[in-house]
């Protein structure tokens, strides 16, 4: 871990531990075992470079973005295309049925 990461972890760990201490005081922890509390309080914070972390927005949006950029066999975008009159999908081989 680069020196900046070590310094960031050292600076944030006490704050993280304070947050954990507050969490175990919440009513949701009232019925947990002492072992569970102990293990919870042993958690540590880890840091990583911003470019290496998880991008939750990308993970959430990636499938939708792939769908939105999909192309049909004529290399036309397929998202947002309406059927139009008589069910015409815009395909050149489509014939409206009477």
Strand content is under 5%
Helix content: 40-55%
Shape: elongated
Tell me the count of domains: 1
Overall average residue pLDDT: 76
- Assign the structural class, choosing from mainly alpha, mainly beta, alpha/beta, alpha+beta, or little secondary structure: mainly alpha
Order of helices and strands: HHH
- Quantity of strands, as a count: 0
Instruction: Give the C-alpha Rg.
Output: 27 Å
Q: Note the main sheet.
A: none
How many helix segments? 3
Low-confidence stretches: none
How far is it from the N-terminal to the C-terminal residue, by CA? 70 Å
Explain this structure to me?
- The chain has 98 residues and is an all-alpha fold.
- The protein has one domain (3-80).
- Helix content is 44%, strand content 0%.
- The protein is built from 3 helices and no strands.
- It has helices at 3-24, 34-41, 56-68.
- It is elongated.
- The N and C termini lie far apart (70 Å).
- The mean pLDDT is 76.
Compact overview of the structure:
The protein has 98 residues and is mostly helical. It has helices at 3-24, 34-41, 56-68.
Write the layout of secondary structure elements.
Layout: H1 3-24, H2 34-41, H3 56-68
Descriptive tags:
3 helices, mainly alpha, elongated, 98 residues
């Amino acid at each position: 871990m680069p020196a900046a990461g070590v310094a960031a972890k050292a600076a944030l760990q006490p704050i993280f531990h304070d947050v954990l201490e507050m969490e175990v005081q919440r009513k949701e922890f009232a019925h947990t075992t002492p072992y569970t509390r102990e293990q919870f309080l042993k958690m540590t914070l880890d840091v990583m470079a911003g470019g290496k972390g998880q991008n939750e927005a990308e993970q959430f949006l990636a499938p939708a973005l792939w769908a939105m950029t999909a192309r049909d066999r004529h290399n036309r975008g397929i998202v947002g295309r309406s059927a139009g009159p008589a069910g015409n999908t815009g395909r050149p081989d489509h014939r409206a049925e009477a």
